[in-house]
Amino acid sequence: MSDLSAPPTTVSSVRVDVWSDFVCPFCFIGSLRLEQLASKQPIDVVWHAFMLRPPGSPGMTAEKRARIAAFEPTLRTQMQNEFGLEIERGPLGAQTFAAHHAMKHAERGGHGAEFHDAVLRAYWLKGEDIGDAAVLRKLGAAFDLEFTDDLLAGREPVTSEAVRTDIAQAAAYNIHGVPALIFGNRYFVSGAQPLELLGRAADAARAAPVALH
Predict the structure, then answer these.
(1) Structural domain containing residue 176
(2) In sequence order, what DSSP letters do the residues of the chain get, joined into one string?
(3) Is residue 9, in this structure, part of any structural domain at all?
(4) pLDDT digits (tens, 9 = 90+) for 17-65
């Protein structure tokens, strides 16, 4: 017979570090699945910058554009069936350097998760160019955030250091593709994996013994 006077069991939150880029479709899918996971169990998602095409990268080849176009119908069907969302992608080759710096500023202001989601939705659902400073400032204004020219150009010391740290950490972890997720600083998950797998990774991280330092 259960003890009705016993306090309910508290499930501890699990930290999930995620390296992603805003123009990566699998990163958007991964973010939506993490949102679903957060509705089922407590997780603390920490977003890290990763640039698929850093400044100075060569232009997108015709072959690459053709592969993206060929995948578009599959992506549209998946987004509609799984999330009920209609895709309207922003411009191919959109530069995300400024968006990552804006994200770090938003994070410092306590609006990191909301701004991250806003940038993803602006690019994938509204067809906006998230490499455009005016677009980023419009998105930031919804959270009372202001982005200076120096910040968006990577000349603001604190935000630029935060972005460089994320990129250096990705290199140290041998991360070459995104999304890349680390649950509880223990379990690595690569790609936009199914919700069930993400849940198992979170459960495993939560059940793992605390490491002694």
Answers:
(1) 14-207
(2) ---TTSPPPPPPPEEEEEEE-TT-HHHHHHHHHHHHHHTTS-EEEEEEE--SS-TTPPPPPHHHHHHHHHHHHHHHHHHHHHH--------TT---HHHHHHHHHHHHTT-HHHHHHHHHHHHHHH---TTSHHHHHHHHHTTT----HHHHTT-SHHHHHHHHHHHHHHHHTT--SS-EEEETTTEEEESS--HHHHHHHHHHHHHSPPPP-
(3) no
(4) 999 999 999 999 999 999 999 999 999 999 999 999 999 999 889 999 9
Q: Give the pairing of strands 187-190 and 180-183.
A: antiparallel
Q: 131-147, pLDDT tens digit by residue? A: 999 999 999 999 999 99
* CATH number of the domain that residue 20 is part of: 3.40.30.10
Q: What is the percent of the chain where pLDDT is above 90?
A: 91
Domain count across the chain: 1
Residues in the chain: 213
Q: Which two tokens stand for residue 179?
A: 């999304």
Q: Is 212 a member of any domain?
A: no
Query: Is 210's pLDDT higher than 80?
Result: no
The first and second tokens of residue 95, run together, are 């530069």
- With respect to residue 4, please indicate whether it lies within any of the assigned structural domains: no
Give domain status of residue 5, yes or no: no
Q: Summarize pLDDT for 4-25 with one digit per residue, the tens.
A: 554 445 789 999 999 999 999 9
